[in-house]
Amino acid sequence: MAREVLNVGQVRIHAGSATREQAMREAADILEAAGAVTGAYFDAMQQRETTVSTYMGNELAIPHGTNETKDAILDSALSFVRYDGGVDWDGNPVSFVVGIAGKGDEHLEILSQIALLFSDEDEVERLKAAQTPEELFTLLAAVNES
């Protein structure tokens, strides 16, 4: 990938909670503000969620569009939002919502970086302990190295 998929402006921390739909909307809005997706991407995320949950375990959800809606993706990017009050993701507790948009097959590389990070419980605890978006971004910087 020629450019970074995540910058500090795409990382947020909320003290409260959100609904699944609010969390997906924020993920899509961050990706749209980054110039990675069109306004249609939120609908694509919702469409994906009706066919298969994007809950991944370990307090992580990765909402993303469907293959049929690839035209809503302009560039590869991530959004990363931590909800300290949690999100009820179809009965699963989620603290981290990672919106992903991948041009071509780039999303596969990005997903593998996220999966590696979240497979390590110590890393997840560090992500939960970060006090600022800047600190969280530093812990996530590996996603830009894929």
Q: Which radius of gyration do the C-alpha atoms yield?
A: 14 Å
Helical region count? 5
Secondary structure class reads alpha/beta
Largest sheet: 6 strands, mixed
Secondary-structure element string: EEHHEEEEHHH
| Beta strands, count | 6
On the 0 to 100 scale, the average pLDDT is 91
Strand fraction equals: 15-25%
Unreliable runs? none
Proportion in helices: 25-40%
Distance between the termini: 7 Å
Detailed description of the structure:
With 146 residues, this protein is α/β, with parallel strands linked by helices. Helices cover 38% and strands 23% of the residues. It has five helices and six strands, in the order ββααββββααα. Helix 1 packs antiparallel against helix 2.
Concise synopsis of the structure shown:
By secondary structure, the chain is of the alpha/beta class. It contains five helices and six strands.
How are the secondary structure elements laid out?
Blueprint lengths: L10 E4 L2 E2 L1 H14 L7 H11 L3 E3 L2 E2 L15 E13 L2 E10 L4 H13 L2 H9 L3 H8 L6
Parallel strand pairs: 1-5, 2-5, 4-6
Antiparallel strand pairs: 3-4, 5-6
Helix pairs in contact: 1-2
